[in-house]
Amino acid sequence: MNTNVDSEEHVFIRKTLAAVEKAERFERIKQVVVTVLAFGAAFWLLGSKGPSSELNIECTILIMVGMMLAVCTTKILSSINRNTKAVLQAIAAMQEKRP
Fold first, then answer.
1. Nearest to 77, CA basis, from 31, 36, 39, 15
2. Residues 63, 42 contacting (CB under 8 angstroms)
3. Number of Cβ within a 10 Å radius of residue 53
4. Digits of tens for pLDDT over the chain (99 positions)?
5. CB 25 within 8 Å of CB 19
6. Which of 3, 27, 46, 71 is the most exposed place for a label (fewest CB within 10 A)?
7. Helix, strand and coil in the chain, % to nearest 5
């Protein structure tokens, strides 16, 4: 009965590790897309000459602040995923060493 529990734990850890790796890849892709869109929007606003240039500056500042917040959030999530991955790999290695 103990081997069945160990097998279930091993399967759970492997599935969780795969999910963490998938989330890590998704976060990297999402960070690149959001950064490119934010830079594009900021440059478009800076380049467009509208009737109110003050509005363009305000929008650009908001986009830049939003982009900085998105990058910080992505870095935090990346750190969490990396640490979770390390812990799960250590647990999986411990289980493989068991007799």
1. 31
2. yes
3. 11
4. 466 666 787 788 888 888 888 887 887 888 788 778 877 877 776 676 655 666 667 777 887 788 788 888 888 888 888 888 888 888 878 777 765
5. no
6. 3
7. 90, 0, 10
Give the residue carrying structure tokens 């289980």.
95
Three-class SS of residue 51? Answer: coil
Query: What residue segments make up the domains of the chain, in order of their start?
Result: 2-97
Candidates 44, 25, 24, 48; CA nearest to 36 is 44
Size of the chain, expressed as the number of residues it contains:
99
In the chain, the amino acid numbered 85 is K
Q: Measuring CA to CA, which residue among 11, 14, 32 is closest to residue 78?
A: 32
